[in-house]
Amino acid sequence: MTDQQTARIAMVTLDCAEVAPSAEFWSALLGWEVAASSEDYAMLTSPDGGPALGLGRVDDHQPPSWPDTGHKQFHLDLAVNDLDAMAARAVELGATLADPQPGETWRVLIDPAGHPFCLTDAANWG
Q1: Is 23 exposed, middle or buried (0-12, 13-18, 19+ CB in 10 A)?
Q2: Domain total of the chain
Q3: Which of 11, 24, 53, 59 lies in the 20 to 30 Å Cα band around 30?
């Protein structure tokens, strides 16, 4: 074993045009607390102490495209117990169902700021 330093993911931050609607959406969808919030930035914390989710206001924010048009991006994959129920809940909170969909075991949605994210069956993630 070496003495190389390693890092851990402390937070993933998503850019957005408006912080408040994004913070409200992600807080409600994940069930996480909004630990800090201003016009320019919000941080949501996980009840299990895992990495936080940051939301930062960026002037002239341009959401990524779905499907990917060649401009590489990352997105969140969320494990859920009931795929259809959680997709319906996400839409109720302000997400939209993306088109096209990749198959039966995943749902791709777009958050209110335009970020794609995926829901998948939690049983597949052990």
Answers
A1: buried
A2: 2
A3: 59
